[in-house]
Write a structure and sequence with these properties.
The chain is mainly α and about 150 residues long. It contains five helices and two strands.
Length: about 150
């Protein structure tokens, strides 16, 4: 949880540069990277909280094992699903609100039954412990892109 708190602080520190872009790194702006990271985090936690822990059925998934073992997501290999793409204008205000919601949601995640889960399109069911790892890895992926844009 401490790592995610630091990542949220770094995302927040970059909000003032939301329009900055470097197409040699990504076609998306810093604002898009921040919005996407927060949207993923908040939607995952909402889905996880709504889940029925009795329906959790752990199953080995090599893609999940690779990402969780290496703690990295290969860049440029997958496009974000439509449900987690920004649908409205990205503003400093909307990003600050999403940061605050993420902080609240991370605390809620810590109080969930270990078998609450969300269904990832490539990894299948991801339980609470794995969700913390996924959020850290996914957020770090987008923070690296943001850092590269800023260079």
């Amino acid at each position: 949880m401490e790592k995610i708190a630091k990542q949220l602080a770094e995302l927040s520190a970059n909000i003032s540069q939301l329009d900055r872009q470097n197409v040699t790194v990504s076609n998306a702006s810093i604002g898009w990277q921040i919005d996407h990271s927060l949207r993923v985090m908040n939607q995952i936690i909402a889905a996880l909280i709504r889940s029925n822990p009795d329906e959790y059925k752990p199953k080995f998934n090599w893609r999940k094992a690779y990402v969780f073992l290496t703690k990295r997501i290969p860049r440029g290999k997958v496009n974000a699903p439509k449900g987690i793409l920004p649908t409205e204008e990205i503003t400093e205000s909307s990003l600050h609100s999403a940061i605050e919601l993420a902080k609240e949601n991370i605390l809620l995640l810590g109080n969930c039954n270990p078998n609450h889960f969300f269904v990832h399109p490539f990894f299948g069911q991801v339980n609470v412990r794995e969700t913390f790892v996924f959020i850290e890895v996914h957020t770090e992926h987008h923070l690296k892109i943001i850092r590269d844009i800023c260079r």
